[in-house]
Amino acid sequence: MSSIAAHEHETVLHDDHSYDHLLRDSNVRMSGGGSLSTLFVIVAVVGLGAAIGSGFMSGGKLHALASLQMAAMGCLAICLGGMFFTLAMHLFAAGWSVTLRRQLENLMVLAPVMLIVASIVPLYDMFLGDGTLYLWMSQKYKSNIILEEKHSYLNNTFFLVRLALYFVVWTIIAMQLSGFSRKQDENGDKWLSNKARFTSAWGMLAFALTTAFAAFDLLMSMDFRFFSTMWGVYYFASAAFSGVAALVLIVVPLRRAGKLEGLVTSEHLHDVGKLMFTFTVFWAYIAFSQYFLIWYSNVPEETAWYFVRKRDGWQYVFFLLAIGHFVVPFLILLFRGVKRSPTALALVAIWMLFIHFTDMFYIVRPMVTTRTSETMALSPLSGIWIDLCAVLGMVGLLGFFLSRRVASLALIPLRDPRLPEAISHKNYI
Fold first, then answer.
1. Which distant-in-sequence residues (6+ apart) come within 8 Å of 240 by Cβ?
2. pLDDT (tens digit, 9 = 90+) per residue, 252-262?
3. Span 216-239, mean pLDDT?
4. Comparing C-alpha atoms, which of 108, 217, 123 is closest to residue 169?
5. What is the pTM of this model?
6. What is the distance, to the nearest Å, from the Cα of residue 82 to the centroid of all Cα atoms in its chain?
7. Within 13 Å, how many C-alpha atoms sit on residue 372's CB side?
8. Boundaries of every domain in the chain
9. Tens digit of pLDDT for each residue in 142-178?
């Protein structure tokens, strides 16, 4: 039982209709939502159109591809964060989270969609670009001794097989868990919760492996010379960090729109704030550990990755991440009042998503500087508007799919057997 007093829990359970007024349609369903979807479409079209057009028409194709992939991987991480928390909350029978879980499911269902989007650039590189961004796909590196040793993994056929595997696994997990949730809304079958928990047991392992290898394939393999044994968990940390921030930016506007009254309270936001704090610290731990291990071992193939990112202005982005990705949210989220304030928590969540995309920017965009001597001096601010357009466009695309999903379903699992516990949830710490 999640920090709810036993006598309160019993009171709710013995009065099955005590919360019926909270489940009225006006409180748990969106009406319309078409105008918001239209706005997101406009942002997506303008942003992506500007990023693609500016890159390809001005000869900066590599910059455009890097910007699009950076934005796509940032959005994919958000959706994978939703999948992780959905799995975890089922797996641990987290009753307090039931009224939040539907929005995590909405993010989770979009993970396969965003994987398709994040696969467009590498597929373009494979069939049309000749390794423009992903070096191992270029013919001129085929005789490289390092790539020859990695050829059994980094080859077109196996790469496509792995992408298909990620898509299938994430689709199965998302469809099963969201399907159980929707079906339970209709028939109230409590055993569907047990089925969801069973799916989450094997799903968590499958999620961990596929997320790690997707990070290897779609990010780390851009420079085949680089490798890090912590790369998979680093991307997972980013996914959890951004996913919980996105959850806040979904439920807080819904509350302001008059929805979820009595269903998502300051008690729930307090616990979400704890998760934001937790994964702020976790990301910092993983990021420092990765840097420390690479610095200590001093292997050229590994240190070269950081060397490129410690010059031409990229060192300032490094320090921005150290301060903005850890110190700022860490200090702010220490305060109980911040975690219980919808407005304050939403502002922190906005910052967290900004710094999350900055992290993806730091990972991907320096790849533009590793190609020719002409681009070695490309600073983070060079053509930054292309990167901003790509992020806005990709967020608009994700927002379009998400807003349609939110408007099509009840905002909470209406007949989950743990709903009374969630409604009565209290925080005592």
1. 81, 84, 85, 279, 282, 283
2. 999 999 999 99
3. 95
4. 108
5. 0.93
6. 7
7. 5
8. 6-423
9. 889 999 999 999 999 999 999 999 999 999 999 999 9
Q: Enumerate residues 6+ apart whose C-beta is below 8 A from 126.
A: 134, 137, 156, 159
Q: Residue 57 has which token pair?
A: 């028409």
Long-range Cβ contacts of 251-257 (<8 Å, 24+ apart): 251/100, 251/103, 252/342, 252/343, 252/345, 252/346, 252/349, 253/346, 254/30, 254/406, 254/411, 255/342, 256/342
Q: Are 125 and 65 a contacting pair, CB within 8 Å? A: yes
Q: Residue 103: which of 350, 411, 403 has the closest Cα? A: 411
Residue 247, token pair as written in the block = 């959850």
Q: What is the mean pLDDT of residues 44-73?
A: 89
Looking at residue 214, its pLDDT comes to: 98
pLDDT score recorded for residue 59: 62
Is there a contact between 368 and 312 (Cβ–Cβ < 8 Å)? no
Maximal C-alpha separation, the chain: 73
Residue with tokens 């796909």: 137
